[in-house]
Design goal:
single chain; alpha/beta; 7-stranded mixed beta sheet; 30 helices; 30 strands
């Protein structure tokens, strides 16, 4: 077919490629193409001149059975035009969305879609010619006029479909068939139309009411995008009808109050109470603004199905809640639904500027198909109001659409006009069907507008005067739909007016109850029944850690699993040595190093039926090759996870090498821990300061969530930290940041020096009757330090030791006490023992926050006459000293000088600085 070079090359090449595939194997192309090529070849060979062509007779022609027949083939120009029409159909499928009338305010920018007749060497003279290509659209042989009308209705109406980039033929064909067969004939029933109007009515009247009663107060109005409410109602109802039992929604502020009231059923009274500024009774912590709060409810759909619907709390940082939602859904799928993702569905509601501009969207989208992070597909709903605060979309992105990130995972995108509720509902249904069938992401980009400024006290005409002149005159979606229904005769005007009046009265009655100070029960967000077994912490809880030792025979059982490999499994030589060393530690020396103690801790939890999930960029072996939780066969690369084979009735060890992301992955793990209080959920940074990239999750969720939202979380962060001469990026995990964020017992900050203490620390995370986030300044060189070992016996008894006293100095002789934390202890210990300084005591603070004051006072009471110094290897303005000053421990410091960079990049200077700290400590 390469002679038809006048056709838009890419489309003709595509048709030619399909034709060649068809000739080799007809089943390799879609059924509609099979029909087309069959008809095309027939007409090419046997076609009659009934359509007015003047083809020449070539006499006998072979048929498919090797026989000959005499016939008049159709002329060559018609054959060429058949290919042209087929190419045109393909072009509409690929680029028709660029013509779709998706903008309710004005005509769209011309994106030059190249779908006009002349682009395909066709003209109006061909409009009444019948083409076999009509079969491709499922309408049979049809005139070009009919074909064009069908294409425009399907692909250039109020919905723009993007899906042709999808690479799996089955997925693409399913979508195409649904779109081309159902989009044209979709018509909701009378009851469904009433439901749409009812939800639109609720959305609209709610916003109008708040605007009237709370003039100028921030509410981040949904006005202009009210169709979000019937769309969400449809998504949730459709999901419930298809067997989904739970939905978790993540969204920012715009429309959130409306979603809380009209989707999750949060009482209007409690929402009004927030506007009144009342503090609810029983509130935990400082609370948050009303449009950041989460909620959970069990709702019944119109068809009588029950479905649990949750809305995650979120900070002001747009899209930050996305990975938290995904992690939550994954945890629920793992635990509640035995890995069946069809039972739980994440919905992310985006703004157009944020979905295009925030990098976290890309990170989370990349997780969609990864074994450790997949959640069976997310329904993304973009409330596209064509503006970001005051920024026009031309300044907000380079891509044509805000939703183009979807294409990296071959997710279809439905762009739809937000003034056409029925079109939005069609997209909502299609999205849920697609998600449930293929367990993958799908995007709805609802193009609408924002009636007011970014918030209700903002003046949008400062920056978008012409746009807001249009909006001022533009009827809201409810009025447009109501008028359409009346015009069609679907509902009468009286019904619409009555719905409006009744709803306003209901709101006024509820507001009156708030004004009369009627007590409104405080309903905190309850994410899972398991959390009901726990309580909030009290200061006394931190005076003594709970017992976390395990019996020796249990340790032995776990130890056997750690040294065993399957028959025929061939690890590399270094791993064989590692396994022998583990065996020696466990059975002969009975002294374990860091990696062994860590795996024993995880194993002990797994056999207690508690999930352990560890993720990060290299966690299976560990960045510093200390963990080797997963072994690989040197010949087949087959993997083997020892901790999965301790005993039969145990939890599986979930250990995943993550994508190269910090923000997204830590958010995901936080969400996972938010769903399951009985799981030990750990994120390990490749180096401690890599957590810089996840600071938003640390600040907004980990440090503040209990105070803001009354929800606990036990997520653990392992942040490799210590000065070994590796330069500024690989030395310092910035402990001062966590200590600055610490207040009101909101998290634990620790720096551990013995494997046994790490063992107990990990177990304590789940032994407490409450949950706290944990940040560990985790070791690098100590992973292999010959003195950093613990007797196996220390794991069988006792608990986490917040303070470790000196075992070398003579208390009566001691003139100086060096208080420290972490790796520098071993540098000081070497000096103490080498110089036999029994007049200097070294005391380790293993837990920095909350400061274990009682334990510390008990240890220091032995040395009442001694000078006390704080020793740290971090520069004076980093590390721990400023925190100690803040909490009233005013003691002199020995450290590196204050610095802009966390560490020197020159090994010789590093060695000199480290030696200087040790020397000064003992002077």
């Amino acid at each position: 077919m390469d002679q038809y070079s006048y056709i838009a090359n890419s489309d003709a090449a595509y048709v030619d490629q399909l034709y060649q595939s068809y000739r080799q194997d007809p089943q390799s192309v879609d059924a509609s193409w099979q029909q087309f090529f069959k008809g095309f070849e027939f007409s090419l060979t046997y076609g009659e001149t009934a359509n007015g062509t003047n083809g020449k007779t070539n006499g006998a022609a072979p048929n498919g059975n090797g026989l000959t027949a005499t016939a008049k083939p159709v002329d060559a120009s018609h054959a060429e035009k058949e290919v042209s029409v087929a190419s045109l159909i393909k072009a509409y499928r690929s680029r028709g969305h660029l013509l779709a009338k998706t903008n309710p305010l004005k005509p769209r920018k011309d994106r030059q879609p190249r779908v006009d007749l002349p682009d395909y060497a066709l003209s109006e003279a061909d409009l009444d010619t019948v083409f076999e290509s009509g079969k491709l659209l499922g309408i049979g042989p049809a005139t070009l006029r009919v074909i064009m009308e069908s294409l425009r209705k399907v692909y250039a109406g109020d919905i723009g479909f993007e899906y042709m980039y999808i690479r799996e033929l089955e997925v693409k064909n399913w979508l195409r068939n649904k779109i081309e067969k159902e989009a044209l004939v979709f018509s909701p029933t009378i009851d469904e139309k009433k439901r749409i109007l009812e939800k639109l009515n609720e959305a609209t009247v709610f916003e109008n009411f708040l605007a009237t009663k709370y003039l100028g107060q921030k509410r981040f109005s949904l006005e202009g995008g009210e169709v979000t409410i019937p769309a969400l109602d449809t998504i949730i109802s459709q999901a419930a009808d298809m067997g989904v039992e739970e939905v978790m929604i993540g969204m920012a502020h715009r429309g959130r109050l409306n979603v809380l009231a009209n989707i999750l059923g949060k009482s209007y009274e409690s929402i009004f109470d927030g506007f009144e500024g009342n503090v609810p009774d029983q509130v935990q912590g400082d609370g948050d603004v009303k449009y950041h709060l989460g909620y959970s409810s069990l709702i019944e759909t119109k068809s009588g199905k029950q479905i649990s619907v949750k809305l995650a709390p979120n900070p002001s940082h747009l899209e930050a809640v996305n990975p938290v939602v995904e992690g939550f859904v994954r945890a629920q799928a793992d635990e509640e639904y035995q890995g069946d993702f069809r039972k739980i569905m994440p919905i992310l509601i985006h703004g157009d500027a944020a979905v295009a501009g925030q990098g976290i969207v890309y990170e989370v989208t990349q997780m969609a198909k990864l074994a450790g992070y997949q959640t069976g597909g997310t329904v993304h709903f973009v409330i596209n109001n064509q503006i970001g605060f005051t920024t026009d979309f031309e300044d907000a992105r380079s891509s044509i659409y805000c939703s183009d990130v979807a294409k990296i995972v071959d997710a279809p995108i439905f762009h739809v006009n937000g003034d056409n509720p029925e079109a939005v509902i069609f997209c909502a249904r299609l999205a849920v069907e697609f998600r449930e069938r293929f367990n993958r992401d799908v995007f709805i980009d609802m193009v609408c507008y924002r009636r007011y400024g970014h918030n209700e006290s903002d003046e949008p005409k400062f920056t978008q005067p012409t746009m807001y002149n249009i909006i001022d005159k533009h009827a809201n979606p409810r009025e447009i739909y109501k008028d359409l229904l009346i015009k069609r005769g679907d509902v009468d005007a009286e019904l619409a007016t009555r719905m409006d009046t009744e709803f306003k009265k209901q709101l006024q009655d509820r507001l009156d109850r708030v004004k009369q100070k009627e007590e409104i029960p405080y309903k905190p967000l309850r994410l899972d029944l398991d959390w009901a077994e726990l309580r909030f912490s009290e200061p006394a809880d931190f005076d003594q850690s709970p017992e976390t030792g395990i019996p020796a025979d249990v340790l032995e059982t776990i130890g056997k699993a750690l040294v065993k490999i399957p028959e025929g499994f061939k690890p590399i030589k270094q791993i064989e040595k590692l396994l022998k060393d583990r065996q020696t530690m466990l059975t002969e020396t009975k002294m374990v190093n860091w990696g062994t103690a860590e795996l024993l801790a995880y194993g002990s939890l797994l056999i207690e039926g508690k999930p352990v999930r560890l993720s990060g960029q290299d966690v299976q072996r560990g960045t510093f090759s200390h963990r080797h939780a997963v072994l690989h066969d040197s010949e087949t690369n087959q993997s083997y996870s020892s901790l999965d084979f301790i005993q039969e009735d145990q939890q599986k060890f979930q250990v995943y090498n993550s994508l190269l992301s910090e923000y997204g992955v830590l958010g995901f793990e936080y969400g996972y821990a938010m769903a399951n209080p009985h799981a030990l959920v750990i994120w390990e940074a490749q180096f401690g300061d890599f957590s810089n990239g996840a600071q938003l999750i640390i600040d907004q969720f980990i440090a503040a969530a209990e105070s803001k939202w009354g929800i606990q979380n036990g997520v653990t962060m392992l942040l490799p930290h210590g000065y070994e001469g590796q330069g500024p990026e690989h030395s310092n995990a910035r402990p001062e940041r966590y200590l600055q964020l610490y207040a009101e017992y909101n998290m634990i900050v620790a720096n551990i020096t013995t494997p046994a203490n790490f063992f107990h620390l990990m177990r304590r995370q789940l032994a407490w009757p409450f949950r706290k986030p944990l940040a560990v300044m985790s070791p690098k060189s100590l992973l292999r330090h010959p003195k950093c070992v613990s007797p196996l016996e220390d794991l069988t008894k006792g608990s986490f030791q917040e303070v470790l006293g000196d075992t070398y100095a003579q208390p009566k002789k001691v003139k100086r006490v060096l208080l420290c934390t972490g790796k520098v202890y071993y540098d000081l210990l070497d000096k103490q023992q080498a110089d036999q300084r029994d007049d200097v005591a070294i005391v380790r603070l293993e837990q920095l926050a909350p400061l274990p004051k009682k334990q510390l006072d008990a240890v220091l009471s032995q040395y009442k006459k001694a000078e006390l110094f704080w020793v740290q290897e971090e520069p004076e303005n980093m590390g721990y000293w400023t925190y100690l000053l803040r909490i009233g421990m005013n003691i002199p410091i020995i450290s590196r000088k204050a610095a802009a960079s966390p560490a020197t990049g020159y090994p010789k200077i590093h060695t000199r600085e480290q030696a200087d700290i040790v020397r000064r400590a003992f002077e």
